[in-house]
Amino acid sequence: MRRRTAIITAGLIMLAGCGSPTPVQEVEPSSVVRLDLARGADRTLPTEVHLPPGRGRHPLVVFVHGYTCHVSEYADLIANWVVAGFAVAAPTFPYTNGAAAKLDVMDLLNQPQDVTAVLDALLVAAAKQGDPLHGRIDPDRIAAGGHSLGGMTTVGALGKWRDPRLKAGIVLAGSAREVGAEFRGDPAAMLFIHGIGDQVVTIDQGRAAYDAVPWPKAFLTLPAGTHRNPFMSPADPDFDLVAESTTDFLRWRLNADADARKRLAVLGTHFDDRLG
User: Where do the DSSP E strands lie in 133-240?
Assistant: First the structure.
């Protein structure tokens, strides 16, 4: 068992590939609420909640960063979702973030339950008079998404550790490694995006998780895509496609936007469309 754990850890440690934090680029006039959340004394989960402008309840995306990554590295992708009207909650996970004093790649197995804990706290806050989140989150329109280890966390939150409030999932360069492809509960549409050039989590691993999903799903292949840049860097030639396709997926699934569904349907031959 000890040898197997060492082999697993050696394999997952390759997920490291994120750099130093980049400055958060706020999109005015959206706002950010910062919460000091936790699940027990040793599991702090500081969370940024990015809110679209205006009042009213917004659909929510809980976004999970990759191994050794920082939430700020996804600022541009998050901004695209916020501009489109989605609230985005982005926790920093205690043992997989780039500034962690102690890194533990196998803490992946705890992160799906962290997603549930964060969601619990957000919905309590959204129902509390006087809270900055009061009346800002729609509890019936919630999705999870993540990159790399965060994508694996998303698979877990829709599988072995299913949170029934999740109506959709986005898996960016992720797989079902160690969390298992044990999808269960009510159908939740899922979008997978993966680059052929990903040498950290191979596209075959991502495809295996996708094949196991029993619900409406789609798989977008990035022929020149790598593990990191298509999801973090606006300078990457695939970034706009990632931003637009994920936004349309969320619009379709959480907002019942028929036009967004039509745009997804014409993404081309690299888009395996089984969304129904």
Answer: 137-147, 168-172, 189-195, 217-222
